[in-house]
Structure prediction request, 233 residues.
Amino acid sequence: MNDAEALKKIAGEAACEFVKTGMRVGLGTGSTVKYTVLELGRRVQEEGLEIVGVPTSIATQELALDVGIPLVELGSVDGLDIVIDGTDEFDPHFQLIKGGGAALLREKIVAQQSAAMVVVADERKQVECLGAFGIPIEITPFACDVTVAALSTLLNCEVILRMEGSEHKLTDNGNCIADAKIGPSINDPIATEASILNVAGVVQVGLFNNMCDAVVLASGNGVDTLMNPKGRL
Ligand code: 5RP
Prediction:
């Protein structure tokens, strides 16, 4: 395991401390939170941890079932106690860019239904100003080129549809996904989120504002949990 992978594992596993027996847990998507899912599965199987999970993607659903985490439909429970998820960037105000793994729509639905959100990250994800990663945006397949052009005009940057070979990459929801190459310039992520959502054809945007309560951050110095002073935890 290389250094970057080791940091993902440290962060992913450390976040499990937020999960207690009886909780309804949102299970995020990505290569960092994968380690959370693996560790929660181990605790369910070996330590009698009693939880139910709601996955944010088909990939996470398959992994969670593989490791023995009981899953439920989001609509069958009255909200979730916590969601643990990865991020592509987080800023000093705990605002996030997500969607690198194309799961942003289900991730945001689950996050909005959760009483708390804990993010797992390594130090590469910590930024002063959001945007270097780009902004993932899920859009309807109908006239997706027109929506992309409208977004490009709105944001004054290149917006690129993700491809899989010669086909548009499709999300778990059957939509297209594009990345706005805006650069580290998002000074007002709340206004940026609102303006993108105003474009017809946009299903959801990977700006997650005022949702994250804590970041479990792994670096060369070990693991640190950054608590959002305005958060719910
Ligand atoms: C998927 C996401 C991921 O959480 C995000 O891309 C981080 O993934 P990783 O931990 O693999 O870097 O938002 O849509």
About this structure: The longest strand covers residues 117-122. Residues 33-47 form the longest helix (15 residues). DSSP finds six helices and 15 strands in the chain. Helices lie at 3-14, 33-47, 58-66, 104-112, 144-155, 189-197.
